[in-house]
Specification:
By secondary structure, the chain is mainly alpha-helical. It has helices at about 15-35, 35-45, 50, 55-75, 80-95, 95-105, 105-135, 140-150, 150-165, 190-220, 235-245, 250-270, 270-275, 280-305, 310-330, 335-350, 350-360, 370-375, 380-395, 405, 410-425, and strands spanning about 395-400, 400. Helix 7 packs antiparallel against helix 18.
Length: about 425
């Protein structure tokens, strides 16, 4: 007798699934309203690309700092309490944008983002394994891909707000008839007025976001959420770390995730710089980011469907090779075609994060909570790589090539690492048994 197909999301957990899935959109919003701030701060605060990229260092550094503490908190208490702690920290970080704008200190904005991402670390460390646990293990990777499909919806909204309510309203980005920035030629008094205006423009969406997060905190606090099944709180954390370190598939998954997040953030952060090198204003360039996210979202749904017919490890390898091909064009082509290929790269990035995540956490049992933290810590790739790419861009030119083109060698290397992981999970790791 044929066994009935197991649903991706069982009916009894549908409402909790929807609530937790909405959080994927909320941190997607935070990610992609923040990415354009690198270019915005670089202009209005008159700082280098390297220093402006500290926005990403603070943002993704918060993940690295708080992922393990978040996992230990969840392990001691519950998924629900981990979600609530994450929302509380998220709201505090967003609301700190108000005093940061009042004092007009770049470092204050970095601290605000750092605290905000303490909250995001809690949310991602908790929500990803929570989604994996909401049903049969056979459908776990598909379920996580489905939930992750709503992340780019939040990202799209973040990009829309950044483009229409931040970048387009920045006085510091106004240009003359020749396409040159007017701001750089102004006196200090005029610059001070524009700086105050622009920092308030940057501030306002975060303040609104803070109150939205507080509302979500209230909704989840009163909702009935499923408890973790068969959680063993007696397991020693040190033993968990030892087991995870010995698990080659998991260990390599963390490395692959570091490079994936680095590639994603570099491609989406510096698309504005790539366009700027072609004479395209920031607000217009952000529209290319929006198109990239639409492609990313569409590809996420398509790739989730393809997983019904094709092995997720094979798809991961193929998509990584696709990313290598498009990024090669980004590096070598000087013109709009290179920009189009950079936008197209998002199609290949779409399935990577949840697929690496799902493969790495397979069969970890109660170790999955700490294992998830390691994969969230891997988001530190988004903190480390953008400043390095910014340093390359600051060179101006490398030989006869624009440095911004050459800088995309870093995402190319990242896709190579991911392709190797996809291949090894197909050909090597299925033969390995973790004891």
């Amino acid at each position: 007798m044929k066994e009935p197909k197991k649903p991706v999301v069982p009916k009894k957990v549908l409402l909790p699934f929807i609530l937790i899935t909405s959080l994927f959109a909320m941190w997607g919003f935070a990610n992609d309203i923040t990415n354009p701030l690198v270019a915005a701060f670089q202009t209005v605060m008159e700082i280098s690309n390297v220093k402006a990229a500290l926005v990403q260092f603070a943002f993704y550094g918060g993940y690295a700092t708080m992922a393990i503490p978040a996992a230990l908190f969840v392990k001691k208490y519950s998924y629900k309490k981990g979600i609530l702690m994450g929302l509380a920290l998220y709201a505090v970080g967003a609301l700190l944008f108000f005093p940061a704008a009042q004092f007009e200190i770049f470092g204050f904005f970095l601290v605000s983002l750092y605290i905000l991402t303490f909250g995001l670390a809690f949310l991602e460390t908790t929500a990803n394994p929570y989604i994996l646990s909401m049903g049969a293990s056979e459908t776990a990777t598909r379920r996580l891909n489905l939930a992750q499909s709503f992340n780019p919806m939040g990202s799209l909204l973040g990009m829309f707000v950044a483009s229409n309510f931040i970048l387009s309203a920045l006085e510091s980005d106004k240009r003359d008839a020749a396409g040159e920035l007017i701001y750089t030629s102004l006196g200090e008094a005029e610059k001070a007025v524009i700086r105050t205006h622009d920092l308030s423009v940057i501030r306002d969406p975060y303040i609104i976001l803070g109150f939205v997060v507080i509302a979500m905190f209230v909704v989840i606090s009163v909702a009935k959420m499923p408890k973790r099944a068969n959680a063993d709180h007696t397991i020693k954390t040190a033993d968990t770390f030892k087991r995870l370190f010995k698990n080659v598939k998991y260990r390599e998954g963390v490395i692959a995730q570091v490079f994936y997040v680095g590639a994603q953030i570099m491609c989406w952060t510096f698309i504005i710089h790539y366009a700027d090198n072609l004479g395209i204003p920031k607000a217009t360039a952000q529209n290319y980011n929006i198109v990239a996210m639409i492609i990313f979202l569409s590809s996420r749904f398509i790739s989730t469907m393809l997983m019904k017919y094709l092995n997720s490890r094979f798809l991961l390898m193929v998509f990584a090779i696709g990313g290598m091909i498009t990024i090669t064009g980004v590096i070598l082509i000087q013109g709009m075609a290179g920009l189009y290929l950079l936008v197209a790269t998002s199609a290949f990035m779409s399935l990577m994060f949840p697929t690496i995540y799902g493969i790495a956490l397979e069969n970890l049992g109660d170790d999955a909570t700490i294992g998830a933290a390691g994969l969230v810590m891997a988001i530190v790739g988004g903190a480390l790589m953008p400043p390095l790419q910014g340093a390359i861009i600051d060179l101006g030119t490398v030989g006869s090539m624009p440095a911004v083109n050459i800088s995309f060698i870093l995402p190319f290397i990242s896709f190579v690492v991911i392709a190797i992981y996809g291949y090894r999970t197909m050909k090597v790791h299925p033969k390995l048994e973790f004891k």
